[in-house]
Amino acid sequence: MDIERLRREFPARRIHHYPSVDSTMRSAVGLEPGSVVLAGEQTAGQGRHGRSWHSEAGSGIYCSIVLKPMPVLTLTLGLATADAIARSTGIVCDLRWPNDVMLAGKKVAGILVQLADGNAIAGIGINVNHSSFPPELASAATSLRLHTGAPVSLTDIVLTLLPAIDAFVELDKDTILRLFTRASSYAAGRRVTVEQPEGIIEGTTAGLDPAGFLIVRQDDGTDTLIVAGGVRAAGS
Ligand code: BTN
Fold this sequence. Notes:
- By secondary structure, the chain is an alpha+beta fold.
- It has helices spanning 3-9, 24-28, 73-89, 135-138, 144-148, 154-168, 173-183; strands at 15-18, 36-39, 60-67, 94-96, 100-103, 106-116, 119-127, 188-196, 199-208, 214-217, 223-226, 231-233.
- Bound molecules: biotin.
- Biotin binds next to helix 2, strand 3, strand 6 and strand 7.
């Protein structure tokens, strides 16, 4: 990744780069809002729900950005990431609520938001030039390169990602909910299973509530509000 070019294009931002780091989430704690941390690889990349994030050296974008907390930030970041991928590569992704970026049914990018010192640390991982994944991830993960068959510029994606985030965080909550509903095949009318504390439920998605939570309508007509992830296409 061409870090000097990024610093030239965004002179007002603090852009920190580590060839190798445990997790950009940890490195971003305590930095001022607007700061960006990028890494060539992560040795302890963090995913949602305590999972790890596969962070192969040189193949992906491993990025944390310090932001002010705002409503529906996770949905906002998913939209910004999909927008940046579309603008920089022409590839149109789907969004699996709340913020998995999907390509041909597999996950191509993930987002993790953590609060620290009154700021939101927005962690974005994009699988860009991976040519394969470990066996345990292979059925669920893909990369832009695996999809197109050609290498993709990490720098070009980051050049569009930072302005996309700046633009999407300016939008109000209702606009984000409307854009997400339009961009995501999971928001309404999708048959899904969802891991809940009481077990797995199956139903059809029925839109987002005003707080951005996903409504799943089970076959007996019961609506369940899904407040955390664990949503999968039924039968997958
Ligand atoms: C998910 O599980 O979908 C969220 C994945 C988030 C991964 C990114 S990579 C950059 C940042 N640093 C981390 O350790 N995790 C996030």
